[in-house]
Amino acid sequence: MCRIEIREQEFNADFIRAFFPKLDYGVLKSTLESLGDDSLKLDSVEDIDGQPEDFLRLLHKVLLEMDVTQGEMTCGNCQHKYQINEGIPNMLLGADEI
Amino acid sequence: MVKKHELPLPSEEDIALLHKSPTTFEDDNVHKIYDEIANHFSSTRYKPWPIISRFLQSIEKHAMGLDAGCGNGKYLPLAEHLFGLDRSVNLLKHAQRAGDADKQVVLADTLHSVTRRHIFVGILQLQHSHLTYRQDYAISIATIHHLATEKRRVESVQSLLNSVCLNGGRILVYVWALEQGEDSRRAVPENSTTSSNSKGLDVWVPWVNKADGRVYNRYYHLFERGELRCITEEASVQSKVKIQVVQEGYEKDNWYIELRTHGSI
């Protein structure tokens, strides 16, 4: 079961532009899609400075305001499942998994 | 004159357990205790220490940081994009609402989580995108003195070095000092001798819990003068990350060191 909550945060276009180069946009897009959200339409973004404010606001929403409060994450490498409970992802590993 | 409470020392059996399995020892003598005392403990931890506040105020705009061992999150409101990591889920429940705002936190181990960056994909990318990338800065406040062996304390600093940018990444580490000041309520037993092959001193620090009146002995490794510098230099060699010491010193019964990464060795 997955639960998503939206927590409003103040929009800051400069922050989104500064943060964007660190992001793997493709992973963000596919993650959103795995949550049933297809709001990111662009397949790739070459130049963040050339993007309209609407797009920056969309990024702001999915990066800073969307909070997965219940769900699980599957590691792309080892398929280990990490649970998210009450908004806290549990990244602890058992002694045999370290 | 402040009334001093002498800190109890671990017995030989305790030390044997520590060496047999440091992780089980930390689980029993640190993590489980913080989960038990979280509510009372959190109510006593609200005042930021000056060196740490100044460090956070000096962080560049839009920079993203990690508080590795954030406890109840008392530092999270002091910087805009600082997220918290801790071993105690009950302390994290406080951290999530630190400063009456929504904060991003993750339940993880300071030793492994940040070096296992590659696993932070999927939903975490969305929620904690910052975790997948090197941070601009990281702080470790009153955390690594809970790790049971020198090797683990070095590894935790390595983990910090690996979590920030290779060039210009900023780190602040703060640990409890063996040398307790005059105003400290704690006293280190005078006749205690540290074993020749290790620095500092392992002690129990009792916590009298308000809810049940029980006394919980938390494990601490008290750092002696020069020891923090020594383990950061070892961590730098091990992780092959060149470091520059920006400042180091003693504040309120604690040793601290501020580092800046300087490329790889």
TrEMBL record, chain A:
Signal peptide: none annotated. It comes from Wallemia ichthyophaga (strain EXF-994 / CBS 113033). InterPro entries: Trm112. GO terms for molecular function: protein heterodimerization activity. The lineage of its organism: Eukaryota, Fungi, Dikarya, Basidiomycota, Wallemiomycotina. This is Multifunctional methyltransferase subunit trm112. GO terms for biological process: rRNA (guanine-N7)-methylation; tRNA methylation.
TrEMBL record, chain B:
Gene3D superfamilies: Vaccinia Virus protein VP39. GO terms for molecular function: tRNA (5-carboxymethyluridine(34)-5-O)-methyltransferase activity; tRNA binding. SUPFAM superfamilies: S-adenosyl-L-methionine-dependent methyltransferases (SSF53335). InterPro entries: AlkB_tRNA_MeTrf/Diox (IPR051422), SAM-dependent_MTases_sf (IPR029063). GO terms for biological process: tRNA methylation; tRNA wobble uridine modification. GO terms for cellular component: cytoplasm; nucleus. It comes from Wallemia ichthyophaga (strain EXF-994 / CBS 113033). Keywords: Methyltransferase, Transferase. This is Methyltransferase type 11 domain-containing protein.
